[in-house]
Fold this protein.
Amino acid sequence: MTEILLKNADLILTMDDTRQEMPGADILICDGQIAEIGRGLQTQGDIHDATGCLITPGLVNTHHHLYQTLTRAVPGGQDALLFGWLQTLYPIWARFGPDEMFTSAQIGLAELALSGCSLSSDHLYLYPNGARLEDTIAAASELGMRFQPTRGAMSIGESDGGLPPDSLVEDEAAILNDMIRVVDAFHDPSEGSMCRVGLAPCSPFSVSRDLMRDAALLARDKGVMLHTHLAENDEDIAYSQAQFGCRPGQYAEDLGWTGADVWHAHCVKLDGAEIDLFSRTKTGVAHCPCSNCRLGSGIAPVRAMRDAGVKVGLGADGSASNDNGNLMLEARQAMLLQRVANGADAMSAREALEIATRGGADVLGRPDCGRLMPGKRADIAVWDMRSIESAGSWDPAALLLAGPMTVKHLFVEGRHIVRDGQIATIDLPRVIERQNALALALQA
């Protein structure tokens, strides 16, 4: 039995069922789980002094394209809307292979970890030059991050009226076969799982209705979750109405893409009827505020979604459309955008942090994560409130107003992933060097 005690925290934000806030408290970790939260706890194991620190659950990232960390700030895509941005980047991504997928995933996940993120999904929908989903799974395993990769796909290329080039699309029978392969090989449905695989055809404009329907049937047969992009911007809505004769929400419902086992990325342009549909069916949403700003997509109706009871989590989205992977900044941006749209009292710092933790865990079907309670997983972020960002702050729980935006310690399943602000599990400078070499090769 391995025990770790985090002792004397100034404040613990539990995000438990009552949203309890505990000053001057300790957390006892035993074999990857939270054993006890209280004052004056004891252990024979390792003790970490949390004096001067705020403790929260590890943050949860519900939408990302980790491979895109190799294509940040690409000229030609810096000022484009979604469709033009994609058409600029597709030819570059077509030159990726297994090494690019592995290295970019390690960089992206390490960046997330430094922002306090302990659980991340990933939407990988292209597999050029022998790349496979397990390239990213291996990267997460080595780093020690809890991971929810999705086997994405594109099947309609330019010659068939789709957006991606033909070189990046796959045969639909082959896609379904590989979905079966990766679920059978890597999906672990158990509580405390470090890897759960989902199925994620890319978008309504890059796959057929048949593939969307077949993927939904397969996911239910295998007991895994479904994910895709939906209603991201005005172009997306126009495409859906022109090609399918309906709005994206109706398209999703008709094909079996609503339910507690489904979450959609973006949903910037959902209307009231679609919000009601998602609430009624318990369909989740991955809100990606920085990417939505960067691509000029708009402000998602998060206040209306939350008020209607829709499950909402945060997503960093692709590091070529953000171009950052700091989930704390994402949470702050989510809060600020709702205030811009609806007034200064539209979203508090505490609510935005709840969306970033418990909210994201609920979207991903992980009630064992995202909250600090006995019996839940020991995914814990420790924030040093003695840093310059929070100097003079009267309310450490208002973390998103004053900072810090980077974590001091991060534990995942009780394992020390970030120690004193540095990645503890991999040689990050070496990985950064490799990443920059790969980026230069792609430019050449």
